[in-house]
Amino acid sequence: MKLIQVKNVSKEYRTGEITVKALRGVSFEIERASFVSFVGPSGSGKTTILNLIGCLDKPTEGELKVSGTDVAGLSRKESAAFRGKHIGFIFQDFNLMPVLTVYENIEYPLLMVQSLPSTERKDRVEKLLEEVGMADQKNKYPDQISGGQKQRVAVARALVTNPELVLADEPTANLDSETAYAVINLMKKMKDGFGTTFVFSTHDQKIVGEAEIVYFLADGKLVDEKVKGGKNGQPV
Amino acid sequence: MGNLFKISVRNLFRYKRRTFLTTSLIAFGVIFVLGYTSISGSFKNMMIGQVTDSMIGHLQVHRKGYVASIENLPLNMNLNPQAARKVESLLKLQPEVEDYSPRIKFGGMFSTFVETTNIRLNGVYPEKEFKTIPLLSSRITDGRKTLHRGEILIPELLARGMKAKIGDMIVIVATNQDGSVNGKQFEIAGILESATGPGGRDGYIHIEDAMEVLRMEEMEISEVAIRIKDFGQVETFTRKLDGLLSGEVNRQGARSLEVHSWQQLSPFYNIARMIDMMTIFIQLMLIAVVLISIMNVMIMAVYERIREIGTIAAIGTLPMKILSMFLMEGLCLGVIGTVIGNVIGMVIIFILNVSGWVTFDFGRQKGLVLSPTVDPVNMLVVSAIVIFVSVFASLQPALKASRMDPIQALRHV
Ligand SMILES: Nc1ncnc2c1ncn2[C@@H]1O[C@H](COP(=O)(O)OP(=O)(O)O)[C@@H](O)[C@H]1O
Ligand SMILES: [Mg+2]
Fold it and tell me: Which range of residues forms the domain containing residue B290?
């Protein structure tokens, strides 16, 4: 079974009289343990598609399954529980809790989303701190570390619950290109190490090269798909 | 739980000034309420003490109907001897009773051989009366605690008006129930300061002298004033005694005795109630202050942290958890304010007590020093109300936070 199955999904936003078609009949499937990127200009629907996969929003039409669950049918509370169990999130603006230290930010999902016994919690947090190279900064607060470091912490926070899927909407948009590469490579390393599927969006062509599979979006439609080391430019 | 607490406290420290202002406001309110209730409460208690301990006693037993016509001091409504004995033997058995004092009340003429006027008199057993009415001796010019046969204590207004002095011989003339007039000579043994309230301007003689003046063969007392050990039990004991005496009936089968607590006998009960009402009103104002300030600060807290709320909601924090997080913050604000308020309030009350700054006059009693005390039950109730209101005031903003759509919240700038 594929991790993500998207069939003929459309999404419309209605604001008063105006209806915006953010997605127009998109279909694709994503395997477990893959490293996938959605690329396209601003307004092409990248965020919309990530929100749908991430159970933050519901499609207007079409079928959407994550880990075999028809997520379109979940209630608000069920969606929240589903996200907490299956999905990790990385944000463009890092979105760490300013009142919590690096360590506590990573620990947060284990305390507030999944309740884990304290020894196991400590082991996991310490391990991820090592993995993302932030062990020596663990007692600092977010405003005491750099953007690249914040995003490393965010990667650790997204992975701490052992999710099957990590979604990252433009995770490098606020980073310089060197740091951006470092963060993408960190994500890749995590994917290899934990077998987690990473799906991220970007409009940065340089970063795209790091993805194994790239979906090109324009005007709410998938216009191209590229598989690394394989048949490029195969239309969908 | 501990974690929610940690996050809440850190968030409160994040906005130090706002937290400081809000908790100070709550603390100030608590101090004010505590101070007000303890001062007004001790004023009330002192006033009640004055009322009960200088004349009325805690409760009284009369023949049915006597209280309604007490202005006339009707001799034909006195208790008959068996009824009086029955009441006394009953009172002796009650462990709650500190002491009681039977009185014969009557009106008569007071004559200095030069001038004559009216006087209202209580015939009492001095030892019993002084024990039942502990402030009585402090009302007497020389603070004496005795009254012998042939002696009279007269109210000061009468003494002044009649130019009567201690040691003077005077005559009391009274008409008894059968209409026969009798007189007896007394020596003025003391002048009584007026007490505020009914009976506060009555004179005193020995009960046996009263019997003699009224030519009673058997003692027919008008009332029994009772002092109980625990003033807090007045109402309970009044009901108990009323129940015990309910068996006393007259020939028609109607009840022949009635029991009244001081509340029913003194108009000051209404003032005491007014003080209680004002205390409640002040507490309502405190509730309003806490409600508005906490609600205000929590609405701001939610508004400022929309993106954070979006983040934690997106990563799967359940709405209930988000709700508790903000309720916890309101709770912490309330608790901090209450604790500070209670501590400072108690210090202030302690200082007031030690310094004796708060004095007041009650009726003709001047310069009574108020000693405000904190009623721990009241303190707990006020604290509980403030803390409850703090949580309640956070409910609306917290609900708003918990219901936020993560996408909208994350897009908020
Ligand atoms: N909540 C919304 N209400 C109305 N229109 C929206 C909303 N979210 C996105 N859109 C519109 O949908 C389209 C796709 O947006 P989005 O998925 O954010 O694109 P991208 O992330 O690729 O920049 C855009 O035209 C955008 O204006
Ligand atoms: Mg976007």
Answer: 2-51+270-411
